[in-house]
């Protein structure tokens, strides 16, 4: 059973925060697509669906409400921002129709053809992992910039789109792991990583941090906000102390969550943490072993220990 709120977003009536009273107010994060408890900050739901009307008026007047369809609006990402007609031919088309389609393809801008192809891939990949329209638009803009600068020239189109989506998610503040992006890209991780490096070098974007993933990972593991806060603190201090040099942000986040959960009443195994974060169980344990000797310095001062530091598992 679902109900519709004022913002045309749906989530189950039974959805509530397990750590707060049943009447605790929930907040919708439209950018990330999450439902967050206002009292404790826990992510209690994700992947909201926008069921609002998908049409809009293209009238020059701001007050225009006519939903009639008279063609697509100007697209600033295309070289020729006009309302041109695309000629498509199918089974049983005449030779004349085929000739017109061939002539249009020859006359159209090659850059625009690549842009259309890239936007199609962006939309398809985004739909598979439920990315918002804002992320799709940013990825399309990034793809256009890389296309104009010929930064990713010669690279696989799927790898180009996947890398743009990866960076766009990070820029929008709702990062996804590389494994999540590659799973829907249909190309090798090596190709995507090369493209990401080229984009970062070109656009001078900052690197992601372990803290970027904590809210989503801890929410999916049903960990309360104090454990999430402790895991975030552990990951940040570990990086400042240079205890996990060479480890990826995902591995650091997974190990920090594992350590914080083991010290709390909400214990999670390395396998459970690895399944949610996308890190291998052995990787979680190896990174945890790097943190274990300095555990006393990593936890926040106000953390309520259920298991003392000296009784934490060795791996």
UniProtKB/TrEMBL annotation:
The Swiss-Prot or TrEMBL record describes its family as follows: Belongs to the TFIIB family.
Q: Where in the cell is it found?
A: Nucleus
- What InterPro entries does its record include? Cyclin-like_dom, Cyclin-like_sf, TFIIB, TFIIB_CS, TFIIB_cyclin, Znf_TFIIB
Species of origin: Pristionchus pacificus
Which Pfam families does the entry link to? Answer: TFIIB, Zn_Ribbon_TF
Instruction: Give the UniProt entry's GO cellular component terms.
Output: nucleus; transcription preinitiation complex
Q: Which PROSITE patterns match?
A: TFIIB, ZF_TFIIB
From the UniProt record, give one GO term of the biological process aspect.
Answer: transcriptional start site selection at RNA polymerase II promoter
Q: Name one GO molecular function term.
A: zinc ion binding
Q: What keywords appear on the UniProt entry? A: Metal-binding, Nucleus, Repeat, Transcription, Transcription regulation, Zinc, Zinc-finger
What is the protein name given in its UniProt record?
Transcription initiation factor IIB
């Amino acid at each position: 059973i679902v109900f519709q709120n004022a913002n045309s977003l749906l989530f189950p009536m039974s959805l509530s925060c397990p750590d707060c009273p049943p009447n605790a107010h929930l907040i919708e994060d439209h950018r990330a697509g999450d439902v967050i408890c206002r009292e404790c900050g826990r992510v209690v739901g994700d992947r909201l669906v926008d069921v609002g009307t998908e049409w809009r008026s293209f009238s020059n007047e701001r007050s225009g409400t006519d939903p009639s369809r008279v063609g697509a609006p100007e697209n600033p990402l295309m070289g020729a921002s006009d309302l041109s007609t695309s000629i498509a031919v199918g089974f049983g088309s005449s030779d004349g129709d085929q000739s017109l389609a061939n002539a249009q393809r020859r006359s159209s801008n090659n850059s625009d053809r690549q842009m259309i192809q890239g936007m199609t891939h962006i939309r398809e990949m985004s739909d598979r992992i439920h990315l918002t329209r804002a992320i799709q638009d940013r990825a399309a803009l990034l793809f256009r910039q890389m296309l104009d600068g010929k930064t990713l020239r010669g690279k696989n189109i799927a790898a180009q789109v996947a890398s743009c989506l990866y960076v766009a998610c990070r820029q929008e503040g709702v990062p996804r792991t590389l494994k999540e992006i590659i799973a829907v890209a249909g190309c090798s991780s090596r190709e995507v990583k090369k493209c990401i490096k080229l984009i970062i070098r070109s656009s001078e974007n900052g690197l992601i941090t372990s803290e970027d993933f904590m809210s989503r990972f801890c929410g999916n593991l049903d960990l309360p906000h104090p454990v999430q806060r402790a895991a975030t603190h552990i990951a940040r201090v570990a990086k400042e102390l240079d205890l996990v040099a060479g480890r990826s942000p995902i591995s650091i986040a997974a190990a920090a969550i594992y350590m914080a959960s083991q010290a709390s009443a909400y214990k999670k195994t390395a396998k459970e943490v690895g399944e949610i974060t996308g890190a291998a169980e052995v990787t979680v344990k190896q990174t945890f072993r790097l943190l274990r000797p300095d555990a006393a310095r990593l936890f926040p001062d106000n953390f309520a220990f259920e298991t003392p530091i000296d009784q934490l598992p060795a791996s």
